[in-house]
Amino acid sequence: MNDTFLRACKGDKVYPTPVWIMRQAGRYLPEYQKIREKVDFLTLCRTPELAAEVTLQPVDILGVDAAILFSDILIFMKPMGIDLQFDEGKGPMLTPKIRSLEEFQKLRPIAPETDVHFVLETIKILRENLKDKVPLIGFAGAPFTLATYMIEGGTSKSFVNTKKMMYSNPDLFASLMELLTDCTIKYLNAQIEAGAQAIQLFDTWAGVLTSEDYRHFVLPYIKRIIDNVRKPSIPFIFFAYDAVHLFGIIKDLHVDVVGIDWRLSVKAAVSFLGYDKVIQGNLDPCALFLPEEILKEKISNILEDAKNAKSHIFNLGHGILPECPPEKAKFLVHCVHELSKKYEPVGSEKRTDDRVDFKILKRVFFEGEDALKIEIISSRYGLMEGFLKDISKGGMQLYLTTPISMPLDTKVRLRFIIGARQLIVNAVLKWKAPTDSYYSGGFRFEDLSVRDLDFINRLYTANLT
Ligand code: CP3
Questions:
Q1: For labeling, which of 124, 293, 394, 427 is most exposed (least CB within 10 Å)?
Q2: Is 25 touching ligand 1 by the criterion CB < 6 Å?
Q3: Ligand 1 neighbourhood includes 36 CB (under 6 angstroms)
């Protein structure tokens, strides 16, 4: 199976860069339209053989590196007691609108195995069909986004009814969020049980809230979902649309991948979200209307920016538009694969046993000498703390305050992160026996250029506050 997507989710730098497209199974594909001529959208979602067929279409036609279950975030509204209609061109329409305690009390929690069995069957069919192809992503809508649809009765411009409930009846709003969180946890775990290999949580309308309100009214529920769904073997992707102002919150979420919309450059997003995040995104869906040469340049810029991220999964910054010519989507996938190959490390850079990020926290005295206090994120050993000393062109000394056992000689790819700047160096770690208070070892740098040495020297003089 092509596992580039799953490996990238887990933080491996993968070449070529994996790519999939939000709404990749959809109206821009004539093959999808053909099926939609016979059945309406919701029937399509509720018929496992057909839902599986359209899920596979973009995998076969475009050559994307992941499949996403064909369904909708609103699919469990009906079992909750809400009528859902999709009228051509109008978007979803939900009745009754949930605006009072009486309406809320009529809602039912879902039992995925019976209420949305068709979704679970679709997943099972897909896993069978995708065996030698690509991984399958399951998904759900985040509680706030679902709540907006339930309260407004559809899409909205101002979300006035949602905010009105949030401010004037916070208890009712919290009850609704609580119920939706329970449903989402059950629903996502059922998808994983059925075979979904990664999960994406869509918070499409997150951006309509201030960061203060998002933190207060929404974040606890997002955290509860992550805590109850994310597993080491199942990467969790969080996607919030129009949410640059929420990056300070999103940055601290315990997720594997952050999906970003098209508004901010990947470069800026990486510096806001941190170099230890896997980024998914973020070509403007409208860029697919550009002439090929310019489109190629835009793709190339995103790949260049993403060099700084822990890892990158290419995607659009929002769903592909029905007006998009399918050949442009094909061209996009082809370009991502071709253009990203050049970033693959060559020769000695490839042979690393561990990838370590040193986040430089501050300059300190350690054992009576100048040193740097660091936070360490190792791909093998996880999060640790320690000190760096004796930094020179040849190498440096590492002191770990976290006890671990490590092979005597480890080839590492070190990344020094200081503020928005970073430097990648290959090194060999010679590990010494631990003392009572710390473990220590010496790094010998490989291929350190004079320019890189300048950077390291600057670490000592930088104003670290
Ligand atoms: O990405 C995929 O290919 C998987 C399938 C998928 C759909 N909807 C199919 C769909 C996914 C992941 C979704 C998520 C979804 N649905 C979101 C979150 C993502 C986002 O776009 O921000 C939201 C907000 C919805 C709700 C929804 N569903 C709306 C607002 C609409 C109408 C607008 C539109 O694009 O038509 C839908 C309908 C819908 N969902 C279609 C598809 C393919 C079009 C249905 C058709 O064939 O007419």
A1: 293
A2: yes
A3: yes
Atom of ligand 1 nearest to the CA of 204: 22
CB-count burial class (<10 Å; 0-12, 13-18, 19+) for 365: exposed
CA 23 to centroid of ligand 1, rounded, Å? 7
Residue 448 — pLDDT band, cuts 50, 70, 90? confident
340 Cα to the center of ligand 1, angstroms: 29
Of 322, 344, 366, the last residue of a domain is 344
| Pocket lining: 169 vs ligand 1, CB cutoff 6 Å | no
Query: Which of 23, 99, 230, 413 does the annotation list as catalytic?
Result: 23
* 339 and 354 inside one domain: no
The response to whether residue 316 sits with its C-beta less than 6 Å from ligand 1 reads no
Largest CA-CA distance found in the chain, in angstroms, rounded: 77
Same domain, yes or no: 319 and 440 = no
Shared-domain flag, residues 340 and 355: no
Residue type, 5: F
- Name the residue with the closest Cα to ligand 1, atom 1: 23
Over residues 347-356, mean pLDDT = 70
Q: Which protein residue has the closest C-alpha to ligand 1 atom 17?
A: 73
Q: What is the pLDDT of residues 263-320, one digit of tens each?
A: 999 999 998 998 778 999 999 999 999 999 999 999 999 999 998 888 999 999 999 9
Do 249 and 371 have their domain in common?
Answer: no
Residue 261 is a catalytic residue: no
Q: Are residues 302 and 353 in the same domain?
A: no
What is the total count of domains within the chain? 2
362 and 441 share one domain:
yes
Last residue of a domain, one of 279, 314, 344: 344
Question: Is ligand 1 within 6 A of the CB of residue 241?
Answer: yes
Q: Same structural domain for residues 87 and 224?
A: yes
The verdict on 202 and 91 lying in the same domain is: yes
Q: What is the dihedral of CA 39, 43, 49, 52, to 10 degrees?
A: 100
CA angle (1, 54, 234) in 5-degree steps: 45
Return the CATH number at 396.
2.40.10.220
How many beta carbons lie within 10 A of that of residue 160, not counting itself?
A: 11
For residue 172 the two structure tokens come to: 């009712």
- Residue in 24, 72, 75, 126 to alter for ligand 1 test, most ligand atoms within 8 A of Cβ: 72
Counting residues of the chain whose pLDDT is more than 70, the rounded percentage is 96
What range does the domain containing 448 cover?
349-461
Q: Is the CB of 20 under 6 A from ligand 1?
A: no
